[in-house]
């Protein structure tokens, strides 16, 4: 890799080329350290092979990107402008800029679940702005300090490599390191080809983790040479979205739920303007953005009442199956004029009322969760804002679904976590997990951090930002979707085999 110390090409350009290789080696170590944050952004592999693949891919892919950056920037500059002092300074600036971009990408991926791209710029700006506004002084000090630290390390690495170039040329380290990196690169692609051919999701689910990662797939490579069973591959990766052959089945024995906490009134409005009129002059209500809900009103109300995706919605759902006596929840829909509450039973913990068709007397001493349904002709899902004075539901970052609201109220506000876990497909908003699933209008809705994936029955799909709603160009994450479908069918019993 390095020029021989006895090479006749002893010009400044050849010396700079040799120096550039050592400078790149130093940066590979620094980039490996920073890029290790990607490995903790998602769920860890569950198998030994998955861990091995993750490590060798991280080493080889990160090294490849770093070396490619050297070939595309510092190397041509060394040939065109062979002045050591200037090249070392420019290389330090270029390397610092590259590492800062990598660090920004790692931060965005950790927060939003996707890498830097032009379509996500508005959302990236929003995340950065919230971070800066949250603690402007600390954020500014840390950011400036990080850039200066990286620049100082680059100058030290560049100057040290130049001053000790003769000694470094005599080392055998580059040969072994180069062999290791090439071996890792070859093994990672070979393992991925095998995993893709055998639908080994513990490996293929890592496809989108590292930036600029486009691993070789078995479908294209092996099928070209008639080495892949296409039918088996399609069956293993097929996404079944049909819910006509499934029946909803809950556990036979459910945990009891009794709570002395104050009841909650859920108000929903058919018209967003009516919601705006209602919340005026109510400063005690906190506005919380990014409530993701289906545009279909029936599906949205089903999510809220049952704590389940509309995949389980049938004509035989008069009330939540986890609340057969209606002690917990009273649902008053537009076509219902009573709360279906038995006079002999205690009042419900949660009352769901249509604020557009009922004259509500607002009492600021009571607990409220207030939102509006989607406007007509909306997309499959929408993102809007809810208002609440319930401490548990305030200051919740990231996306929220209506079933998450019901789950969190039951688990946290009313201390019935076991009942919520046993009967709902949702998440506790007070926890850090940022994945979710829904089903509406025949479309699978998979949520991961800020990314919403919509998959139709015909296999077509699109990624959109949960915060801003713009389209995101990204490869379909099949392993994540398969896991989402397994979660969706938690209470499903296939009746086609009966």
From TrEMBL:
Transmembrane helix keyword on record: yes
Keyword terms, alphabetized: Membrane, Transmembrane, Transmembrane helix
Parts of the chain that traverse the membrane: 21-40, 52-77, 89-112, 132-156, 176-195
InterPro entries: YejM_N
One matching Pfam family: DUF3413
Coiled coil: none
Residue span, Inner membrane protein YejM N-terminal domain: 9-251
Protein's UniProt keywords contain Protein transport: no
Name of the featured protein: Sulfatase
């Amino acid at each position: 890799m390095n020029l021989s110390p006895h090479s006749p090409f002893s010009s400044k350009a050849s010396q700079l080329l040799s120096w550039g290789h050592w400078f790149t080696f130093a940066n590979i170590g620094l980039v490996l350290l920073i890029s290790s944050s990607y490995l903790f952004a998602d769920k860890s592999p569950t198998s030994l092979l998955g861990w091995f693949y993750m490590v060798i891919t991280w080493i080889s892919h990160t090294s490849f990107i770093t070396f490619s950056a050297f070939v595309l920037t510092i190397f041509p500059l060394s040939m065109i402008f062979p002045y050591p002092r200037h090249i070392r300074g420019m290389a330090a600036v270029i390397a610092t800029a590259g590492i800062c971009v990598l660090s920004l990408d790692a931060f965005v991926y950790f927060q939003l679940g996707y890498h830097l791209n032009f379509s996500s710029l508005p959302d990236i700006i929003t995340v950065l702005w919230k971070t800066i506004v949250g603690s402007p002084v600390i954020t500014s000090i840390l950011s400036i300090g990080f850039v200066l630290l990286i620049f100082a390390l680059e100058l030290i690495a560049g100057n040290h490599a130049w001053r000790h170039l003769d000694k470094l040329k005599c080392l055998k380290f580059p040969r072994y390191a180069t062999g290791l990196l090439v071996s890792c690169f070859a093994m990672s692609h070979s393992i991925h080809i095998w995993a893709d051919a055998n639908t080994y999701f513990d490996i293929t689910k890592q496809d989108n983790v590292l930036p600029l990662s486009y691993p070789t797939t078995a479908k294209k490579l092996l099928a070209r040479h008639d080495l892949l069973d296409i039918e088996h591959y399609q069956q293993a990766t097929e996404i079944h979205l049909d819910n006509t052959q499934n029946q909803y089945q809950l556990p036979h024995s459910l945990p009891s739920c009794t709570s002395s906490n104050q009841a909650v009134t859920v108000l929903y409005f058919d018209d967003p303007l009516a919601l705006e009129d209602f919340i005026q002059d109510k400063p005690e209500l906190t506005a919380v953005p990014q409530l993701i809900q289906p545009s279909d009103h029936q599906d949205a109300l089903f999510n809220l009442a049952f704590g389940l995706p509309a995949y389980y919605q049938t004509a035989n759902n008069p009330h939540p199956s986890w609340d057969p006596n209606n002690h917990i929840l009273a649902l008053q829909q537009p076509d219902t004029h009573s709360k279906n509450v038995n006079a002999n039973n205690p009042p419900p913990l949660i009352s769901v009322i249509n604020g557009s068709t009922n004259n509500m007397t607002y009492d600021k001493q009571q607990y409220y969760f207030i939102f509006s349904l989607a406007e007509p002709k909306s997309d499959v899902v929408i993102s809007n804002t809810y208002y609440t004075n319930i401490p548990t539901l305030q200051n919740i970052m990231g996306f929220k679904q209506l079933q998450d609201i019901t789950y969190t109220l039951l688990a946290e506000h009313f201390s019935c976590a076991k009942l919520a876990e046993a009967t709902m497909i949702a998440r506790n908003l007070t926890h850090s997990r940022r994945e979710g699933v829904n089903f509406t209008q025949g479309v699978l809705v998979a949520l991961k951090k800020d990314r919403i994936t919509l998959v139709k029955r015909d296999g077509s799909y699109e990624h959109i930002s949960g915060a801003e709603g713009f389209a995101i160009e990204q490869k379909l994450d099949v392993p994540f979707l398969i896991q989402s479908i397994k979660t969706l069918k938690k209470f499903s019993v296939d009746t086609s085999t009966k």
